[in-house]
Amino acid sequence: MVDISRLLSRRTGRMKASEIRELLKYASVPGVISFGGGLPNPETFPVDGLVEITEKVLRERGKSALQYGTTEGVDSLRDAIARRMRDKKGMDITKDNVIIMSGSQQALDLLGKLFLEPGKTAIVEAPTYLAALSAFRPYEGEIIGVEMDENGLKTDILEEKMKKFRNEGKFVPFIYTIPTFQNPSGVTMSLDRRKHLLEIAEDFGALVIEDDPYGELRYSGEDIPTLKSLDRDGRVIYFGTVSKILAPGLRTGWVIADKEIAWKFVIAKQATDLCTNTLSQHIIAEAFDSGLVDSHIPEIRKMYSHKRDLMLDMLEDKMPEGTTWTKPEGGMFLWVWTPEGVDTMKMFPKAIENGIAYVVGEAFYPDRSVKNAMRLNFTYSSDEEIKEGVGRLAKTIREFM
User: In the predicted model, is pLDDT for residue 275 greater than 90?
Assistant: First the structure.
């Protein structure tokens, strides 16, 4: 048996298995209801429409759709995305600002590759998207979290940290945020804080990474301008995806950035996969151009809005005193704070015993400092599973207390 430990690069020591995927292996136990995954509900997938579109693409342009493509992406899809971002999100862009990715997770990995190294510091929200932490860690930069509240990232605390880092000689290339229906918390950054964040980034010479997978899944409240639409000097890099508005199996996302920055992503991407799945790109372009996506999103919103409301009602009805949670206006997740002293990692085996799974809160913090929290997904489970699952979760917290 070959001992590969001495052969591996130092970087591999910083690579960790996804905590969500490892924990949720337990969720496959028969009878366990899982609120842990980040899965869209498969009932929302427009299967019939995609069958028609796929047949059309293969019949009309099959030879190009089945061939290698450019690293930047298929022009028809880049054009469609640029139009959509101009019309729906107020971005002043063209297709030359759009680079197609093999899912937005690839964009996160390339971000780390391009901007992180020993001696550099990435700023993230605390809590933040777990897979972003997984993507950044191997590139050996420091990752610092800045706390949030119901209005998103606390930009006053961010500003103080940035001043401190500058005095200490720490270099911050980017601030990573999911400002709209954040994963894992579900909260949305206010307009004032968005403007303040851009001011801070300009003052300290940092980029802002706006990850926006859930922005079109609003169920209540008013839309808030994207950071990219407020950007006046090419400082914001925007990540988007079709995973939540069409189907995650298409594995297609995009980066929108200033042309110089976009070209760096192209060069980095060339070394990883040459090009994104060409057939998927043609299918998605047709789905945008034909109106399938726009006609389908209201159906997604209707289902998810109902499930969000149901989970919130059940939490209100079932949870023990001292438990609190966010009330998201959109997206796929909400965040639960358990009573002080209830460590959700230690409680997890009891939860599985009671037939309920979640994602432990500490996994979403770079320093794992918060123990009494968890993320719940409300989009995947059936209504009956939401009702039963929240009851099981409340029972578990009471028993653990």
Answer: yes
